[in-house]
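User: Quick sanity check before I run a bigger batch. Here is a single chain. Can you write out its predicted 3D structure?
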Amino acid sequence: MRFYCLQHVSFETAGVLIGCIREGGHSLRTVALFDGDPLPSTSDFDALIIMGGPMSVHDEGVYPWLRAEKELIAAAISEKKKVLGICLGAQLIAEVTGGRVYPNPQKEIGYWVVEWTEDARQLFPDLVGGAGDGSGLAGGGVFFHWHGETFDLPPGARLLASTEACLNQGFLLGDNVLALQFHPEVTPEIVRAMVDNEGHELVDGPYIQAGE
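Assistant: Done. Predicted structure follows.
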């Protein structure tokens, strides 16, 4: 398969997904939107990955490429391409498919437990484990988070995960669109870079961990 990755800032890369994709014999190209790279056509890829970033989906005035990016995401979904959005990427998917994106009551930064829904256990038994069987990550898993906004589920979406601080942590739309608010892709290097570049957000809060 041909993967394209839309990257919003230099330090939020596809991380561990890069090795997974290439080890599977697939190709991967990265579009550095922050550096002015042109967007691909939907005919250029079979699967699209949309990464995170410190900007909001509403910041089109500051980042004019967001408008064209949203059009590409909507087109890819319409053409039944496989689409994965992480953090900001999940929010972009939510917005273009009819969900509302807005500030979460609490910022969520650090390593927090994600609880899988019954839908997630049924849809992905090999990943999160069957209901009540104790396998996989059936009891939830600890994942990295860095977000201040959240989204409403788009029409027809199936909720996959929640945390104590944020109800909508992931959804599946159809059988080809996956949106995750948390960060399953991070490496220690990515986390350090996020702390270095966005550390001003590490203020006192019930769901904000210290940089150390």
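The chain has one domain: 2-201.

User: Great, the batch can go ahead then.
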